[in-house]
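Hey all, sorry for the wall of text incoming. These are the two entities for the joint prediction.
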Amino acid sequence: MTPEPELRDALLAAVPSLRAFAISLSGQVDRADDLVQDTLLRALANIHRFERGTNLNAWLFTILRNLFHSEYRKRRREVEDPDGSYAARLTVHPEQGSRLDFEDFRAALAHLPADQREALLLIGASGFSYEEAAQICECAVGTIKSRVNRARSRLAQLLAVEDVEDLGPDSMTRAALQAI
Amino acid sequence: MMTSSKGKRAAKLIPETYLSAEFPGEPGLDRVIQDRIGDHLRSMYDELVQQPVPDRFVELLNRLEKRTDAVEK
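and here's what came out:
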């Protein structure tokens, strides 16, 4: 099966958003790029299953999400404290001032359960509809809605601490740690 | 846990303009924070989306195209 040039271009065009999603999900660029590569390989191997005319991006996000979760389950068995190591990875690079906000925000994001994090990313950042997000996560639309709502209130709690008490640049990380 | 979520639901029954004027601590702050979360999320994500595509993906797709051409039939 030959991936014709249009398909190749479409896959390539999807890479930036797949990477953004994978980085936000996993918190690690290297791992995210491996996920994106595996997603592209799996997509090409299963391209006959893709219904032409439907949303290619949603299909690719579904593959990436499934790969992420099966890998996460595998790692969870290997690593004793996956949440701790994940959080630690997300709080690096404090030297770039302009990125500090993002790093803090990502640290807060890291403390959400994976299902809430992915729902929030799909709806609030990737621009998918609730229906598409439900399809990607293989759950009901109502489930996506409640996950997004829970994710938002959890983040609001973490941000509220920073707003009200103005603890400084580390406040969100501290708030996140205190909230565990 | 139960009481705090009940409290929030009850607060929504009161007109929002009234609440934000009378009790600037609660729902008004919530709204500001929700907007900030949305902005943060989008700008963080946009920054990631705008990163250049690593060469490995271009090479991968080109390589696969050649290989599948050869394997075909």
